[in-house]
Design a protein that fits this description.
- It contains 16 helices and 13 strands.
- The chain has 461 residues and is of the alpha/beta class.
- The chain folds into three domains: 107 residues, Probable tRNA modification gtpase trme, domain 1 (Gyrase A, domain 2, 2-Layer Sandwich); 144 residues, tRNA modification GTPase MnmE domain 2 (Four Helix Bundle (Hemerythrin (Met), subunit A)); 160 residues, Rossmann fold (3-Layer(aba) Sandwich).
- It has a seven-stranded mixed sheet. A six-stranded mixed sheet has the order 9-10-8-11-12-13, sandwiched between helices.
């Protein structure tokens, strides 16, 4: 498969020590060679692969020096895209890196589309689709655990498992074809039914195992949507600041200070939380605060975890009881804050309202109870087993949906065998399962989906 030569800035824009302009394609080395003058006098086309060279980029029209650079030459197929790749390392300033890119584009390269380097790695067979998606997961990882999951997928852990399951199904389909072609042999039919059921049950169990990791994997990838709720002035903003360890939210003694939903990412024991501090939910005549309260009610519906904050120095109010009703059926941790003040809250009533929910006491003013809260959050969703290094975590929503469809399809095949459905009818469900699993790794996927997935990548990747 042949492509034109693409180029893009592969480092974040802004001031820095170094910026990189990357080229990939058959003419990468030729294009860079037109602009580059090595101090050694040698041309890039003469340089061995995987070497780096010091010199200057020079405008061929007037011999004016464009930049002082280091140029890496990497010849395919031993590159990320399996094409010839050149990386021009220049000074990390906006003007400098853009000037280098403009000259590269003027001498034969095309500006890369978002994710096009990784897309070429996929199309050239360097990686499969699940590995390509893991590249973006790795870039976006917010905790060490999330990064480890992405690394495992990028190294092909999920791909190998999916390919193994597809091979099992392929063997079943081969036996089914024999059964259809030679219906006169009863022993072939008996063996086919027995093998089909055995292997289909194995595939079913493996798919169930993968889906069991999906909740944890998705949380590690996307973050746990966590909403802090409570009456005004119970310490919600103080809790946000304590978890983030910065003064992100305004903290005062005046009820209703938080007028909108404040969003912040925080790492709690390796669990990424998308932390939302909401306006205190109460009836109010203040128009701005009322809008904030309505937004608070909306984010509650979409939350994975609720941190319900109560005031240790106040009695349980009707508003508090209403909040317990609102979050009924959700994952909730009840936080009794301001334990540094005299107790007025009825703890027995709190336990009655909280039911099975975890209760944590804190004094955010004195920085007490935060460790217990973090431990409660971690154990609620991961129960200590996330460290298993040999597990394959499914974290991508697309993969989860396809695995769910594959499981239903293989279950229908098993049901068909058990009911004595003709083998050629059962074959339809088996083939469907095989195709669905192929969509995960990109063996059977529409071009429009490929374009959509890679469009989400950053420009230089």
């Amino acid at each position: 498969m042949e492509f034109d030569t693409i180029a893009a800035i592969s480092t974040p824009m802004g001031e820095g020590a170094i910026a990189i302009v990357r080229l990939s394609g058959d003419d990468s080395i030729k294009i860079a060679d037109r602009l580059f003058k090595s101090v050694s006098g040698k041309r890039l086309t003469e340089m061995p692969s995987h070497t780096i060279h010091y010199g200057h980029l020079v405008d061929p029209k007037n011999e004016q020096v464009i930049e002082e650079v280091m140029v890496s030459v990497m010849k395919g197929p031993k590159t990320f895209t399996k094409e010839d790749v050149v990386e021009i390392n220049c000074h990390g300033g906006l003007v400098s890196v853009n000037r280098v890119l403009q000259h590269v584009l003027a001498h034969g390269a095309r500006l890369a589309e978002p994710g096009e380097f990784t897309k070429r790695a996929f199309l050239n067979g360097r990686i499969d689709l699940s590995q390509a998606e893991a590249v973006m997961d790795l870039i976006r990882a917010k905790t060490d655990r999330a990064m480890n999951v992405a690394l495992g997928q990028m190294e092909g852990r999920l791909s190998r498992l999916i390919r193994g399951l597809r091979q099992e199904i392929l063997e079943i389909l081969a036996h089914v074809e024999v059964n259809i072609d030679y219906p006169e042999y009863d022993d072939v039919e008996e063996m086919t039914h027995k093998m089909l059921l055995e292997k289909a049950l194995y595939v079913k169990e493996e798919l169930k195992k993968l889906l069991q990791t999906s909740q944890q994997g998705k949380i590690l990838r996307e973050g746990l949507s966590t909403v802090i709720v409570g009456r005004p002035n119970v310490g919600k903003s103080s809790l946000l600041n304590s978890l983030v360890q910065e003064n992100k939210a305004i903290v005062t003694d005046i009820p209703g200070t938080t007028r909108d939903v404040i969003e912040e990412y925080v790492n709690v024991r390796g669990v990424p939380l998308r932390l939302l501090d909401t306006a205190g939910i109460r009836e109010t005549e203040d128009i701005v605060e009322r809008i904030g309260v309505e937004r608070s009610r909306q984010v509650l519906k979409e939350a994975d975890l609720i941190l319900l904050v109560l005031n240790y120095a106040d009695e349980i109010s009707k508003e508090d009881e209403n909040l317990f009703e609102v979050v009924n059926g959700m994952d909730v941790i009840v936080i009794i804050n301001k334990t540094d003040l005299p107790q007025k809250i009825d703890m027995e009533r709190v336990k009655e309202l909280a039911a099975e929910h975890k209760i944590v006491t804190t004094s955010l003013l004195e920085d007490r109870g935060v460790d217990e809260l973090e431990e409660a959050i971690s154990s609620l969703f991961f129960a200590g087993n996330i460290e298993a290094g040999d597990m394959t975590y499914v974290s991508n929503s697309r993969h989860i949906a396809l695995l769910g469809q594959s499981l239903r399809s293989i279950e229908e095949a098993i049901e068909g065998v058990e009911m004595g459905t003709p083998i050629d009818i059962v074959q339809i469900d088996l083939t469907r399962t095989w195709e669905l699993l192929g969509e995960i790794i990109g063996d059977s996927v529409h071009e429009s989906l490929i374009d959509q997935l890679f469009s989400q990548f950053c420009l230089g990747k």
